[in-house]
Amino acid sequence: MVDPSVAIFGPLDTLVAPYLEYAILALAVLNFVSRRIAHAQHVTQAADGPEALSRHWFHSFTTWGLVITTLYYLTLHHHAGMVLSVLVLGVFFADFFEFEARKVEARDGRSLERPKGALVAATFMLLYVAYLSLFFIVKPLWTQVV
Question: Which InterPro entries match (predicted)?
Fold first, then answer.
């Protein structure tokens, strides 16, 4: 729960804070789904030529949603928010450069590879978000050991 004395956005923090980690987890999972859909679209578009490649709206939505919600999470939980923000911004930049790499592959007439760098970055981000939001599952075992 958010301490009301440090709530930057006032009542919004009190209403949204308990559910924000789950919203970020849902966006992270949706980002993987949208990544698969976008890659399939890129492969189809590459057959029409390199200039036909465009960003998929659903993938852009989930990526920007992750960036915005993570930056908001940073105002609520500073340490975890900073780590998560770095991971999400890493995914954002990896996606940006992976899309440009797909355009180069299409220009050179090569088959499009999967965005491996962005997949690795997104996997680390998903693991950390899952740790933050689902820690209550392992908390009883964790407290016995640590």
Answer: DUF7313 (IPR055737)
Q: Which two tokens mark 26?
A: 């849902």
Q: What is the pTM of this model?
A: 0.88
Residue of 116, 109, 74, 126 lying closest to 95 (CA atoms)? 116
Kindly state the tokens that stand for 20: 């924000």
High-pLDDT (> 90) share of the chain, %: 66
Provide the token pair at 70.
Answer: 């993570």
pLDDT digits (tens, 9 = 90+) for 43-85: 999 888 888 899 999 999 999 999 999 999 999 899 999 999 9
Q: What is the DSSP string of 106-124?
A: HHHTPPPPP-HHHHHHHHH
CA 131 to chain centre: 14
